[in-house]
Amino acid sequence: METTIPQVLASSVRRDPASPLLTFYDDTSGDRTELSGATLDNWVSKTANLLVDGLGLATGDTAAVTLPPHWQTAAILLGVWSAGVTAEISDPESADALFTSPDQNATTKAPDRYATGLLPFAMPLRALPEGFADYVLEVRQFGDYFPGQPVAADDLALNDRTHAEVLTAARARATELGIEAGGRVLIDATTRFDPVDWLLAPLVAGASIVLCAHLDPAKVSGRVDSEKVTLVVA
Question: Model pTM?
Answer without folding.
Answer: 0.97
